[in-house]
């Protein structure tokens, strides 16, 4: 599996271990509910994307095993700090599963900042800020995609009006969130290599288009 080969530690390493307990043909293996906030500089340039990724119950349960150091039944931010660091840094090898295009030009990212994990109601949530390498002016449109090309992980935007927020952007910006069609159930019998080669993740990715006057 491409994702497993790319990453040997952190988030994807844990996903690999989870996958070992699932049928080889199962796709996806992990589900992530996404919320994002797009951040602008005071002079009107896009500077960063703040991510909030909530993992499904099964992955969350597996990931936190052995991390309740004081055995109080609560996974504190401090107890999850090392995992948050390794997870966030390891995502660089997949370009953070994030694509940002300003007026059609793909943007590069800097190192993630302000990362932490929290755990509530049985779900693990990764929070981090992903800065653009250089702030950029989007004169027409900004496109934001969050997806795993292999569809090993299913990234879907959370329900509700707060799935995509804008922070400091020009007045009058409009946000369009298009959600993908559901995967064909027949696809569940296809191999891992098929999904890796067919770029299935992009086909099932939600797309955010931000247009500002």
Q: How would you describe what is shown here?
A:
By secondary structure, the protein is α+β, with helices and mostly antiparallel strands. The protein has one domain. It has helices at 2-6, 10-19, 57-63, 81-90, 192-198, 200-203, and strands at 30-40, 46-55, 98-102, 105-106, 113-120, 123-136, 141-146, 153-157, 164-167, 174-178, 207-211. Strands 1, 2, 5, 6, 8 and 9 form a six-stranded mixed beta sheet that branches. Strands 4-3-7-11-10 form a five-stranded antiparallel beta sheet, with no helix packed on it. Strand 3 (98-102) and strand 4 (105-106) form a beta hairpin. The protein is globular, with a radius of gyration of 17 Å. InterPro entries: DUF1007 (IPR010412), UCP008159_ABC (IPR016537). Keywords: Signal. This is ABC transporter substrate-binding protein. Pfam families: DUF1007. Residues 1-26 form the signal peptide.
User: How many β strands by DSSP?
Assistant: 11
Give the H and E element order.
Answer: HHEEHHEEEEEEEEHHE
Q: Helical element count?
A: 6
The rounded distance between the terminal residues' Cα atoms is 43 Å
Main β-sheet, in a few words?
A: 6 strands, mixed
General form: globular
Give the helix/strand class: alpha+beta
| Beta-strand residue percentage | 35-45%
Mean residue pLDDT: 81
Number of domains: 1
Q: Considering DSSP H and I runs of 4 or more, what fraction of the residues is helical?
A: 10-25%
Low-pLDDT stretches are: 1-9, 16-25
Give the radius of gyration: 17 Å
Protein name: ABC transporter substrate-binding protein
Organism: Alsobacter metallidurans
Signal peptide: 1-26
Keywords: Signal
């Amino acid at each position: 599996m491409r994702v497993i080969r790319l990453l040997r530690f952190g988030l994807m390493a844990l996903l690999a271990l989870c996958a070992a307990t699932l049928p080889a043909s199962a796709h996806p293996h992990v589900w992530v509910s996404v919320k994002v906030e797009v951040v602008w500089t005071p002079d009107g340039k896009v500077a960063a994307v703040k991510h909030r990724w909530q993992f499904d119950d099964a992955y969350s349960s597996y990931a936190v095993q052995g991390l309740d150091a004081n055995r109080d039944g609560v996974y504190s931010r401090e107890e999850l700090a090392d995992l948050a660091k390794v997870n966030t840094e390891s995502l660089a090898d997949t370009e953070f599963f994030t694509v940002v295009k300003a007026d059609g030009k793909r943007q590069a990212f800097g190192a993630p900042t302000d990362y932490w994990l929290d755990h509530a109601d049985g779900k693990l949530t990764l929070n981090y800020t992903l800065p653009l390498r250089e702030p950029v002016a989007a004169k027409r449109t900004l496109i934001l995609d969050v997806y795993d090309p292999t569809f090993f992980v299913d990234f879907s935007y959370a329900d509700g009006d707060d799935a995509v927020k804008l922070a400091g952007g020009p007045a009058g910006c409009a946000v369009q969130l298009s959600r993908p069609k559901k995967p064909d159930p027949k696809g569940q019998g296809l191999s891992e290599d098929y999904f890796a080669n067919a770029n299935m993740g992009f086909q099932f990715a939600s797309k955010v288009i931000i247009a500002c006057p």
